[in-house]
Amino acid sequence: MNTPMCASLGVRKGSWTEQEDFLLRNCIQKYGEGKWHLVPARAGLNRCRKSCRLRWLNYLRPHIKRGDFAPDEVDLILRLHKLLGNRWSLIAGRLPGRTANDVKNYWNTHFHKKFISWERQTQPLSN
């Protein structure tokens, strides 16, 4: 049976509390990013390493942009997706302050269905 690593460890799941965020921020400030297998113990968190890493990368890093995407960002996402496909980390790397998770979620929320419909209309019929 394939069970997720976090589930088999008996660690906390679900929403993060402000206290947990505080502990994770302090740990990263003290020890730096990386060595994620040590972070839960160092920070005093009952979370798995993957959960800590994703929380930091997608929500707590200091220079993450929040809010609506600017028109130039949207244009760049569209052009890069046409070039790179669903390689969200590469696309996000060209959008300062945006995470791959944010870009992927924005794409799936705003463009995915439109893009597939447009792609079907523009491809020639093959018989």
From TrEMBL:
Q: Which UniProt keywords apply?
A: Activator, DNA-binding, Nucleus, Repeat, Transcription, Transcription regulation
Q: Report the superkingdom from the record.
A: Eukaryota
Myb-like domain: from which residue to which, for each copy?
Answer: 8-60, 61-111
Q: Where in the cell is it found?
A: Nucleus
Q: What is this protein called?
A: Transcription factor MYB114-like isoform X2
Q: Which organism is it from?
A: Solanum pennellii (Tomato)
Q: Does the keyword Transcription apply?
A: yes
* A Pfam family per the record: Myb_DNA-binding
Q: Which gene encodes it?
A: LOC107032452
